[in-house]
Amino acid sequence: MSEIPKVTLASVLRNPVHCLAFGFGSGTAPIAPGTFGTLAAVPIWLLLCQLPLVWYSLIVLVAAVVGVWLCGKAAEDLKVHDHPGIVWDEMVGYWITMWAAPAGWYWPILGFALFRLFDIWKPWPISVADQHLKGGVGIMLDDLLAGLFALGVMQLAYYWAV
């Protein structure tokens, strides 16, 4: 797995696995595909957050488990580990960040900023997962951890705010 192949919106939309892995095409953005992938997760979160917490949790868990296969398959098809356009991991990471988020317009914005911060910064152990794990697990795990870090900060911020 070597050179990053060029992927177009049209090619992504023709392949159901790539369509999901590339965040319904958001990962084909020419700059900051991870940020655009996270943005694509926001309207889906707006639907998911209406569900009871147990259903929200189950859906996010299934999305994470399926994401291991989905991201691994897309990377295998493209013959490159963790193509920048594969953003399903960012989407699930954001949904983890927003688990049990309080009501208010600023929480999704704070969650977005915190998730992107941890996803880009990659403090330990996120950096270890990013550098040493391959395949779908490697693609997903660093973003799942970034989501957990951001979730922790979100919950602390809420605790301090009330």
UniProtKB/TrEMBL annotation:
Pathway assigned to this chain's UniProt record: Phospholipid metabolism; phosphatidylglycerol biosynthesis; phosphatidylglycerol from CDP-diacylglycerol: step 2/2
Enzyme class, spelled out: hydrolase
PANTHER family to which the protein is assigned, alphabetical: PHOSPHATIDYLGLYCEROPHOSPHATASE A (PTHR36305)
Cofactor(s) this protein cannot do without: Mg(2+)
Keyword Transmembrane included in the entry's annotation: yes
Source organism per UniProt: Spartinivicinus marinus
Name of protein: Phosphatidylglycerophosphatase A
Keywords assigned by UniProt, alphabetized: Cell inner membrane, Cell membrane, Hydrolase, Lipid degradation, Lipid metabolism, Magnesium, Membrane, Metal-binding, Phospholipid degradation, Phospholipid metabolism, Transmembrane, Transmembrane helix
Subcellular location: Cell inner membrane
Gene Ontology CC terms, in alphabetical order: plasma membrane
